Fold each of these.
Amino acid sequence: MAGAVAAAVGLATASLAALVLPGGQSPLVSVADQVVSLAPSTPREETIALLGTADKPFILGAVAAVTVALAALLGLLSRRDRRPLVAGGALLLAAGVAATAESAPSALAAGLVGTVLSALAAAWSVGRLSRPQAAGLRPAGRAIGAGRPPASWAEREMSRREFTLLAAGMAVLAVAGQGLASLVGSVPSSAVERFRAATRLTRAAHPLPPPPAADSFRIAGLTPLVTPNAGFYRVDTAFVPPSVDPVSWRLSLDGMVDRPLTFRYEDLMAMPQEEAYITLCCVSDPVGGSLIGNALWQGVRLDRLLALAGVRHGADQVVGRSVDGFTAGFPTALALDGRAALVALGMNGEPLPIVHGFPARLIVPGLYGYVCATKWLTEIRLTTLSSFTAYWEQRGWGPPAPVATESRIDVPRDGAALGPGEVTVAGVAWAQHRGIRGVQVRVDGGPWRAAELAGELSTDTWRQWRYRWTATRGGHTLAVRATDAEGRVQTARTVPPFPDGATGYPSVSVTVG
């Protein structure tokens, strides 16, 4: 028990220290970062597919649980000999230091200090709880209080009841400390949030009107055409979203350019702004999954910034780098072919939410997020595809490729119980930067039937569809497929997300009674 309680106290101390140290990051978060970075692709993607955006809390909890379990085991092994506990504690400390050393430079010093403080807190807890007397192992023939009175608390024998109360108290304080750290740490920096809340986006040069009514079907349960910011999916490598001070923040544009440039937040806000509806999706999204959303993005065109810098011959890759060190790269040609590739500053009419990249991020229509959608952007570097490999490609994911033609059934839900008669089947389909030409629905493996399409907001967004089905009693399976504007039909070949994105026909099973 002593080892487990000490580990919990140490973790809570580290998390609390991260709140008060400038740029601080808990060693728990640093270790979790390394777990994700080093984990084989298959279990990592299965975790994302199963948990979606809840993957980060799960991983943090798992790392904490494993740490506490190891400490408890070390405590048991060290009941008569402290050497295993000392050696194991040193190894855990070394793991925390090693993981922290991989943090961004701005967080390195704070992370190391937090790691040392956590080790000291854990050692203090072990010292209080692991004396032989605390376990009730008094020398034979000696009664409590016999002989010389204890000179201090450290020398006084502790009853099992006192030990239990002390251990329970430490555990409660550790849990409370960790809870407080998690609660406060999940709240963005108040100064950054106040700045963001007070910021008003520059009016776009050609503001887009609200989506026409014909582009949306009014069907209960159908995904809205434009995803609210609060409901937009989040997949990134940051366990704690960076709160970036926009006053000191800078965006550098460098590498293979004629004129390296640096932009302040106000510089970008003063430039001509463009609005574009763009559907963004994650390559980890399983068939029929929810890691996709559509928003009205606003920002400065990337091709305009590249023209100001002057792209040198041979620079065939654009790499975005985040303040936390994450990188994503895509072919330069896709930033210069006329599509609305943006350094985005706004999302659905307001400055980017902190969790979605404030103060700036990259958005490139037609590509999965892992190769282009760098959040908390701090650098755009022109380089070559052969000389630089970005974060996820280093971990086995494929090179940049167009988003596959896909679709999804939103209603009825899988497992739904329906009444006989007319049932509306509805969902969304997407093929960003190509557009959707048609959607078809199949019931119980029968012939494909054409669905009705809502209007097309743009070729860079998804498109709603609906199909009126006359349901008969019994169990049924509904499947859907889409065809893009270039005539490519969604493939029936079922493959998992890794390494190029999931494919296959999404389906739901329903019961009509």
Note: Residues 334 and 364 are 8 Å apart (CA to CA).
Amino acid sequence: MTAPTTAAASRSAAGPSLAKLVSHVPADRRWRRQADALIVIGRQLELMAQELSHTAHVAVGTLRFSLFRMHQARIIQMLPFCHSVTVYGEADIEPPHIPGITFVPVAHGTLMSQEWFLVIDSPAFWGALIAQTITERGDGSGRRYLFEGVLTSDERVVSRARLLLSLASGQPNAESFERDVLANRAHWGHVAYALATHSEAQRLDILGCLSEMPEMQSLLSLPSHALNQIAPEAIELLRRYCGSVGEILYRSDGDMLVPIAWSCPQRPAEQPTGSGVIGQAFIQGQLVLAPLLPTDPERALLSEANSVAAIPLTIRGLPWGVLLVGQEEFDPEESPTTMTAVGVVTLLEHLIAVDTTAALFLPPPQIPASDGSVPPPAPPPSQPAPSFAPPSQPAPSFAPPSQPAPSFAPPSQPAPSFAPPSQPAPSFAPPSQPAPSFALSQPAPSFAPPLLGSNFAPPSQPAPSFAPPPSSQPPHAMPGHPPAQPGPSSNPTPTSSFGVPAWMRTSVRQGAAPVIPSAAPTPPSGDTQNLRSWPILQKRLVTALVAYDQQAAEQVWSETCAIYTPEQICNELLTPVQIAIGDGWHRGEVSVAAEHFSSRFVQSKLLNLFNASSDHPGGPMAIIACAQGELHEIGAIMISLFLRWGGFHVIYLGQNVPNSTIEEMVQQLNPQILGLSASTVEGSHGLIAASQLIAQMPPPRPFLMFGGLAFRMREDLQSRVQNGYHFQGDIRQIARMLAEKIRSA
């Protein structure tokens, strides 16, 4: 995102502000992050919105409509599953016409024009990510936003935010509905786990953004998620944050419920699975709320409690145990303890599911009946299932993302990338559009031990990247599975990655009929040409890479490889995407980390194509390398690939090639062409020194070509390269010129 012309000064501006709604949040619960963290958090909330059976109202603040473009494809994905989607921002451009999305302009200089927010409201889940720009750092084109924000599940904040936004949009009658507080907390448990296990969680300090849910933050911050670590900490934080007055965690062992962690002075006795409050919760698989009578056996264990909540735990779709929580209130339904305890149980289910000992506590497989038949078991889900929600208000399921984005090292200098033309053509065909030179993108740049105040009894039992096939000149379409033909369904349903009990499932809540956009945002399923057009594929890939969604990016790549040639893919997909993301970084719309992630993706695909292409040992030899001190190699790989497709025998040396090695290879192999790339000033100095070495060599000397961002940014550097030819523009034109140069030599 482009840095504001004035930093935090706009705080005194007039107009509505969502940041004011969270001004009561203490300073130690606010966090400061760059856009990377906000994108990761927002993605998890967006996925949740798609799991709420068309009941979610979604409001998005993108600062300006021009910045909406970077999030457009991702937001469009929510449309078929949400009740409404509204985008707020400064109207610096005309917003696109997308059926189902309402655009609300925000006046320039107002508080809301400096706020990035995502508000989701539905009967079963509500929450808000509210952040405001506070400072600038750096100067020039590299200035970045820094946000101060709050991630909250506070119903009062969400309701007031919706009311404020509805007034700003001229629609003051915001829909009201009955809220399901337990289902909301369960869903927040899933969101918290997805955020904590994201591959970028530690680098971006995502856990630090969960300060409004300290019980979840504490449990997820444990250095170990083994059962013997998380069980006693869960007991401790229930009392610390939930206001409980007694806690016992049971696991099933055959026909008995065995206590494994407790806060009472003595070890609780084992209890048959069919008796008592915990037996009822375990057998029925439902939350049980009950007052404590003097004759109840739980009274001796939870002497300070007047009522109890028994919450079942379900692991991999099977009953695992029960958490018994004591409450001060005589009426258990009036106790706020239950809500927080439900979120803790959700996290326990996730954490126990990844413990290698968890399977030891699950019921054994079903035994065949006397006739030899075996009842078909329910398919185990890939993620643990939640096991609670008030019976009167069942909640829909939620699926956290199945593929977290891969992690990466922060870069030093992100930069835009090289772009061949937008129109595909055979090798050596004249260009239809000029493009920058071939040296392109630069890569973008413990938790504390818990305080245990409980007892714990250890268990009694021991505890492919897509690689295209070889291609030749001219390249042919790569074989593979035919692309899917998706199209908007009349009643789309998101796919959940784990199951939930039947009493938590519902297609639509009472009184909330599904609302589908009047017109689909994408062409119908039969219009496969438009679905696979280059603009659509480019937008999908940019969206996936900016969101660190490796799985979605690989899906776009596989679909493209199934129907287009490698040359078309380079010209019409990889290069335009890299340019868009690089330009977005310079405008401040794309984070350094996202630029780096996309560069790694593009580089890996180009290397796949290069390694799969056929070399031509009898053709003219070309040595291509990144200059000494240069680490950014996408442009060098691209020119190597097109030269190989053009019939050259290409030797690609990679990044940071010492000048002594280049000089030695030139003397040994006597190539016709030597191509060097430099995107940084440091790399350009190495390239200039290499040109001096080549100029001093006796004939025949190779034809020296060079290019890269450094020479586009600093034209004075070009004149310092001795006997070299600087090329930029259409990479196929470069290859054609080189072929003619060699033939005429």
Note: The longest strand covers residues 126-137.
Amino acid sequence: MNIYLDRPWLKLYAGHVAGILAPSYTDGLAIFRDAVARAPFQPAVHYFDRSLNYDEVDLQSDGLAAALAERGVRRGDRVALFLQNVPYFLIGMIAAWKIGAVVVPVNPLNRERELGLLLEDSRPSALICHDTLYQDVVLRLGAERAERVPEVILTTSPLDLQDRNDARLFAGMNRVACAGAEDLGAVIARHRGLAPPATPILPDDIAFLVYTSGTTGLPKGAMNTHANVAYNAQVYREWISLEDGVGVLGVAPLFHITGLVGHLLAAMITAGALTLTYRFDAGVMLEAAAERRPGFTVAAITALMAMMNHPSATAGQLESLAKIYSGGAPIPPAVVEAFAAKFGHYVHNIYGLTETSSPTHATPLGMRAPVDSASGALSVGVPVPGANVWIAADDGSPAPVGEPGEIVSSGPMVVPGYWNKPAETAEAMRPDGFRTGDVAFMDADGWFYLIDRKKDMINAAGYKVWPREVEDVLYTHPAVREAAVVGIADEYRGETVKAVVSLKAGASATPAELIEHCRSRMAAYKYPRLLEIIDELPKTVTGKILRRELRDARPKTP
């Protein structure tokens, strides 16, 4: 039972609540097939000057699914998508589902060390990636650990399926020949018209294996089932009142749970078009919005701020984008007001995690989230229908109204656990709900306010960074003796990554050298932007480094 059903804001949405709690879909593939049946000749995706209709995506994904099956990919196998925001991400996802496979979205910023961890854990039967990523990352990983790389590799260029080749994104880019891999477009063309073997999809089948970070700093694959993601696709449609055919602006990366559910599935459930621009560039995104006139997006507030502050931004470019939601990082109330003044649209807050298949909380469309008078925090919203959410005090009991504690969530959007990690699953997925690790409080009207991170996870512009992972890389430098990584407040990114290190006796290294050491070995959002070298790191009597003391430290005045 949802304990917030008597809240006044929820009574306003009684019709929408009924539509969500009695879901029409229990798997993602059914959502796509219904869109094909309803709107076969309507665009499913826009990519610069080219568009693909739903029937064309259906044909191409049929061909790819047949090709994957021919190469031995079976029901329950994993298919990794190591791609930016391109149409082949959608085609690859649908093709995998058509043969009952699990989609493993991989951050295209990952380097070989990070990719290797994900491939070793998920053991995909096939990998679909950009030709440049194949050359720069996959081949290097294969040279070190060939057993981690699947035999079936299909490559594509970001220049495929489009004609514009915008110099801001593709300057100096050319198609690359990939020895040892097959060209994705050519494979699809050879199998065009073929149908994959009929494979049933069950609600509890895994749709996505989306990797997050756990308490050890090693990746954990959240098992987002078809029922999980189909339910939250319906939450987007009903709770935000997305009408049929609404266009979706693809600001969030598709490898992220927001892009997967809030972009791909939200577009499919409305039989609307998803506008993609390869990767985020504020100027390109503004132009795409003006050209394609989408009606909805959900994006990190830093992306919306970049669009707002772009020198060429005009109110007319986002005129059609009447429904804007933002999550992944705290939103300053002043930014919401500035955005509304610039574009005429209010940014609605939304909250969720990978383990909750996107939202458990959202600000109802047309309402303004309250601001807590004591902390100045903007509410992250109210629980969406079906989400049972409460605040746990330190002793595990429900915290009183207004008192902080850990957010605990349950409902049809919460994943059953982590891939191959029973201990971590048991720790997080308890009988009374999923322990989010986020500290918040609820006010008397049922609005939730996120006030702190229970864990040491750093949230840099919506990307989550685990400190120990950065520390492990720092420790590979021969001069580093001890290292600690913390998140510190950043006006633009929310948090930024700072490292504090001590050096071995007789060794020398500069902050710039150590930052570059990390930058060359990690995804761009993970490496430290700030680095300080000190003689001794603060520790407890047991020798544990005190990260909080480093986080709270202020520069000393001369």
Note: The two ends are 59 Å apart (CA to CA).
Amino acid sequence: MNKELIINASEEGVEIALLEDKKLVELHYQHGQDNFAVGDLYLGKVKKLMPGLNAAFVDVGYEKDAFLHYTDLSPYFRSLIKFTKQSLDGNTSWGDDFGKFKNENEIVKTGKITDVANPKPDILVQILKEPISAKGPRLSCEISLPGRFVVMTPFNDVVAISRKIHSADERKRLQKIVESIKPKNFGVIVRTAAEGKNTAELHADLLSLEEMWKNIQKNLKGAKPPQLILSEQDKTTSILRDLLNESFQKIVVNDKKLLNETKDYIARIAPEKGEIVTYHNAGTSVFDQYGITKQVKSSFGKTVNMSSGSYLIIEHTEALHVIDVNSGTRSGDIGQEQNAVATNLEAAEEIARQMRLRDMGGIIIIDFIDMKLPDNKKQVLDAMEKFMSNDRARHTILPISKFGLMQITRQRLRPELNISTAEVCPTCKGTGKIGPSILITDEIEKDLKYLVNQGHRDLTIHTHPILNAYLTKGNFFKKSLAKKWAADMGIKLKLVIDNNAPITQYQFFDTKTEDFIKL
């Protein structure tokens, strides 16, 4: 698979498009300093305990208090409380060696928030979900520091290997390496990108994360809640960290400062890929150059058309997303059942792309075209699992039900993109109303008489095809209106069709001077 990252920097911020085989699959926006981004670490103050919800509301500096549920506290919550308090006081019992930190007893999974967070402490928290509309951020106390090959988690010594690494021998090799080099008091999750990497590469990644943890300790010293302790890397570098692999063929940037930052980051994490970063300095927009603008216009909105003539209807309700698959103008010569299978397979690929592109989260219900044969339903399920295999978000796919519905749950990684593809009508200017059409001929005649009085004797009127037909044919006069006007005023008058003209607008052209006339 050919991957390209196109980065468009402007005064408003940075837009990042990820293309897979020239198809837009992810679109990210970074507007200035995006606060409360997923992964940011804050020192928060527990403001209110809610026993009924088994949760707490925490002040992290957002206009609405953030939400922290008991299940997101982490088993090592008591250790985190102790670590936060001693770091704030600057009196750490472990000195500069976190390996000497003595962990507290783990909390139980079925406990109550009032048993572990009372009195209300200052606590180090991590943004789990960004704030959306009226809701504040969702928080977690399971602190994780992501690197390129590993994710490091403090207060435990567990080593886990990504499930996407299927080889038993490779899993054993990585387990043995990581256990021998990881710092004490840190758990490590080995990412899929670590497959095939040597000890030196993994060790370098661990050292950079250990240094990050030391910076957290340093920033906590003397801090007062609410306060940002450590910000996640900007979206460009975080995407490169999570996605960069051998399949990346090109990274295009249109800003020199961002170009240098990207090159520096690539040089640190993958020096062999340095040549793929290029600078876009053409006259056209970088998004136009790579067809991204057109793909955005065609991919967002209620209706999404597919190349075969079939289409999707995507609706977002308060509780879930609903996607309806329609065959549209697709040819059905191959039989109803096979046509349904072909349409559903094409739709499965587009739906997997749409979920990534819009970052749909929660419950997604897909109404596929009815299929009778169980094997065909299984084929569509297998296809959906295959097309979603590249999706970084956690997801669960259920088989197609008796009613022809597929249910999917998907983790939301960022605020859902709702890009309006509608444009303001050039005729009504967005009001939804135009002047009375019955008077249009009177207005043309009045303007025509004015131009004749100004000395114009050879004129052409550019009009929409429907208005053109009315002026030349569609009326009750023996002569067309255009011929009648020409005869009454003693001028040459020609009508020209302009397919791009709004239906009730017209433009005069002086045939002699070859200029359009402004009224």
Note: The domain at 437-517 is CATH 3.30.2320 (hypothetical protein PF0899 fold).
